[in-house]
Model the fold of this input.
Amino acid sequence: MKTKTILFVLFSSLLSAYAQNRTKVNSTSSEISDNLDLRAIASIFGKAENLDDFERQLNDPEIQISNLDLNNDNEVDYLRVIESVERNTHLIIIQSVLGRDSFQDVATIELEKDRNNNVSVQIVGDVYMYGDKFIYEPIYQHTPFLYSSFWRSNYNPYYSSWYWNNYPTYYNTWSPFPVFRYRNKVNLIIDNDNHYNYVNVRNSRIAINLHDRIRENQYERQYPNRSFAKRNSNYKNRQELYQDQKIRFVEPRNRGNRNRFEISENNRANTRLNNPAQNQVNPRQERRINSMNSVSSTDNSTNSNRENTASRSEANWRTKTNDSRKNNETNSNSQNNTPQIRPEIGRTRTNLRPDNSQNRNLKTDKDSSNRGLR
Done:
């Protein structure tokens, strides 16, 4: 009995240690910014009837636009929407609900109308989540319906009424997907009739000041070492990380391994120019570059040698052909008394049969003499 108890305790402790290690790996192994595509947010914002409808689409279990699980409870976080307005500027904040009175800003939508009634809109990723100045400017094919109500005189800013453990009836939790599966799914949500231009400058100073006053960052304060700058020290924001991943992992069509290597090296060289801290050259990388240069120079020299050899072979062949023609002409002239005309292209062949006219004349004379004797 005592032996069974000891084995049970050991087995339980092993399971507990494994679960703790697994939780720790899951919380740090995935890039946070991979789990919410701002272009998808811009797409549903352009189709929403109002901000309440926009929040519903953000959390619709049928759409599953988000894959964020910041509190690591194996459930995708609910995203709530709040708004702040000052004159012609609207700041819409998307927050992840992590617990009771615990929120983390994920992204903001900043709209501003100028004197000519032109509206500028930007989707800005939170600096903790996406790095510094990760911004999309959507250009909608059709004017969003939301614009018609934003600048009314009696407009009231939207503030979500939902919070931890108090969610709308349409909402059901779901577990996060692997990142590759989420990307495939969210690509179907993005409206490709619109354009999503990446920029690195925020247009509205008023929106920046509004956000500084009401920003929520409980998750950031709890895990300061998980910020984008700490997770990806070599990149400024999500855009730079995505571009580098695209060059290193997406295989271009109709290109060989050498072209892919050259593109990757050029990208790294540009990154080192923009970031002096990365100017140190990796010795392995330097040897690889030198080997590639030597291979290319060897190929060039080999091609030039082949061309020279081919030209010399052709010249020798022509010389031998001319000599053989001359020898054939000399031999034919020495064997026949009658000069022979070598046929040439474009001329008619000459009849070279021997002349037998003298033999015919002699035969005729003999026949006549014989008839006289008779």
